[in-house]
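Lab meeting, item 3. Inverse folding demo.
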């Protein structure tokens, strides 16, 4: 824990000359890069994005959001909801994602979820330096897995609660899940071995305004289809999921576990893709999410997409009401 904090502090000192800049989202959002040294692929950076609540707010609190796989932070409406409720809002684009992609890098590459700990630590150090020590960590999909794994492995008294938006706690691969341990083992020896994904664009079509959704985002950062991964990435996910199930890693802060009420299958877009989770199985999320700690609140979201905050307007309204009601109590 001390080493991770030290590395985060060193990363911020080395980036001290980098000031907050207007972010690509506009609307008062700012961002700054943080140098994170080098790994097996060369130089890596993370990016912190923020939008602050008015200075008149007393007893300041903050939220730190962690995006999912094949993703980056673009959900400005969500950030605005937190700011409007008096929270300083922060997000992080993890190394090799979104704003943090460097030329020549393999996007989204990872061999252990521990690699992301400095990215989260750096953002938490920035929040703490602003004088805020009451932080809610929030993660979506793979970001939910990373956030839960991070808290289970690190004692962070500044993180008071955890919100999980459809966290990636199980594979949703059917009979193919029996192959995962073999691929994970192989990934420990030959991590760069490519592993093909489905290539379906149904989920993207349910989101994008150019198809059947209402959102606009950079499709060079959040691709239309889920790209091929590596055996090393499979191993990283598998190890983190197992670590959260073995009973040794418990999360002691309150957890809000949110998931869709409906699983949607099919590689071609159908209207059902705009009413349910077309990526993960909500039953698995509830099953394994309930095991994360002693204070887990489960919320089934009717009409919720995989990224619940990108669901239909009426669903989002009810979802935010639940989130802020839960935060007031926790």
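The presenter then showed the designed sequence:
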């Amino acid at each position: 824990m001390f080493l991770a904090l030290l590395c985060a502090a060193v990363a911020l000192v080395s980036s001290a000359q980098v000031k907050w800049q207007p972010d690509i989202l506009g609307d008062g959002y700012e961002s700054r890069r943080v140098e994170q040294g080098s790994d097996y692929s060369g130089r890596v950076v993370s990016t912190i994005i923020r939008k602050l609540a008015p200075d008149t707010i007393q007893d300041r609190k903050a939220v730190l959001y962690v995006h999912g796989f094949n993703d980056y932070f673009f959900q400005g409406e969500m950030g605005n909801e937190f700011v409007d409720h008096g929270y300083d809002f922060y997000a992080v684009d993890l190394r090799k994602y979104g704003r943090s992609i460097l030329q020549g890098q393999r996007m989204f590459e990872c061999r252990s979820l521990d690699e992301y700990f400095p990215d989260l630590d750096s953002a938490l150090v920035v929040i703490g330096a602003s004088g805020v020590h009451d932080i809610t960590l929030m993660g979506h999909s793979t970001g939910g897995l990373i956030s839960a794994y991070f808290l289970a492995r690190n004692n962070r008294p500044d993180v008071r609660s955890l919100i999980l938006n459809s966290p990636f706690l199980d594979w949703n691969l059917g009979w193919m899940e029996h192959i995962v341990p073999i691929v994970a083992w192989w990934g420990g020896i030959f991590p760069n071995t490519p592993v093909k994904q489905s290539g379906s664009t149904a989920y993207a079509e349910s989101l994008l305004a150019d198809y059947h959704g209402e959102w606009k985002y950079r499709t060079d950062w959040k691709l239309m289809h889920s790209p091929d991964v590596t055996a090393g990435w499979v191993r990283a996910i598998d190890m983190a999921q197992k670590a959260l199930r073995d009973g040794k890693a418990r999360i002691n802060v309150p957890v809000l576990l949110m998931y869709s009420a409906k699983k949607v299958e099919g590689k071609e877009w159908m209207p059902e893709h705009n009413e349910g989770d077309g990526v993960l199985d909500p039953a698995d999320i509830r099953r394994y999410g309930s095991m994360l700690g002693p204070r887990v609140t489960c919320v089934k979201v009717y009409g919720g997409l995989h990224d619940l905050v990108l669901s239909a307007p009426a669903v989002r309204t009810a979802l935010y009401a639940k989130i802020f009601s839960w935060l007031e109590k926790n």
